[in-house]
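Practice set, problem 2.
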Amino acid sequence: TPEVADTIEQPGVAMPNDIVLITAEVAGRVESVPVSSGDMVWAGKDPTVLVKLNTDLLKAECDGCESEMTIDKLRYERIEDLFERGGATEHERDQALANYKGSRARYDASQAKLERSIIVAPTDGTIDSLPVDEGEYIRPGDEIATIVDTRKMTVIVEVSERNVPFLQLGDQATIVARQRGKEVYFVGEITFIAKMLDTTTF
């Protein structure tokens, strides 16, 4: 049995467990960016707004789809009434219903696009990057922000082969970090020990 070492001190790299990349779902010009890199953001019932897009074109599209849907709905109801009284064929009724369903789907889609013009935080965390500016035109798929959750971190440490026998899953480890020029201590737990050896740590 190897003699237990008092302490093993090794440098490590801290990484957040959760990293969320937010991308645009609709195209538009950025109207405002009310947050900055480094800000804490929140999800939930009242999520933090990350970016607002100009909605002039989206509102016009939505209004047009709503008008089309209203007209198709009235036309369908009129033909349905005629069909019940024998004044319209089944084909005419089915066609009117299909037109109404189509225009309603287009309205729902335009409404969804309008709602997605306000991009909010999908998770709690800190804004790590925010590569958009006011006035910039973005397209679907463009990166809006990266959010990291630093409340729970994973620290990766390379340990020499001779020290591996002293480590066990579940063991506690003290992590020393520097924050604003001061040393801060955290307590962590060993959750993984790699089976593959790195020849540089012999």
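Problem 2, part (b): a different protein.
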Amino acid sequence: GNRDGCSLSKVVGKGKLKKIFRKYFGGKCVILISDTRKCQGYPKMIRKATAEDLSRIAALFVFNNRINYFPIFKQEEYSFGELQVVSMIDHYFGKGEVLENLYVADECGIVKGFMEIHGTEIRKLYVDPCFQSGGIGKKLIEHAISTFAADHLWALEKNTRAIAFYHRHGFMENGEKELEEGTTEYIAKLIRVEENVQLDEK
């Protein structure tokens, strides 16, 4: 495999790739030209966001918000009306005080996730659904902890998948709750407790 992780076998999966070869190439040796060259000069990294990243960040946020929160809040007017990429850039992500605190997970020049950090609080952490369960969120939260000493965040109580993720990295509910503005749903505060970190998390 390629060190940069950008081969087709990485994307499709080695087992599935073998099946494809057997089905369409009769098991013969096939030379596969991967997209390794595309990745040259684009190391995997967590970096500070720039204005050029805003459309990708906003699109990622909107997509995640509709998938994760519309089933809970069921606010069509907000999720499919007010919540748009351009408006999120204009009214939120593009503001100087927000952009200054945005960081992205960049792999091969593709922004696969992002987070917003203020002091030691993680305000937002999102991974593109297409790349979830691939270690992107782990890299983001570890960067937040090691670089900014992140020690607390707020999460929607019903977003159990996100809360389970935070639990694996040592963030636990401390009993504080607040109503999410304009809704009847609660958000819970999670604080980081070192001994709760699951070191085998991938």
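Answer key, part (b): Strands lie at 45-48, 102-107, 110-118, 121-127, 152-156, 169-179, 186-197. Residues 145 and 151 are 7 Å apart (CA to CA).
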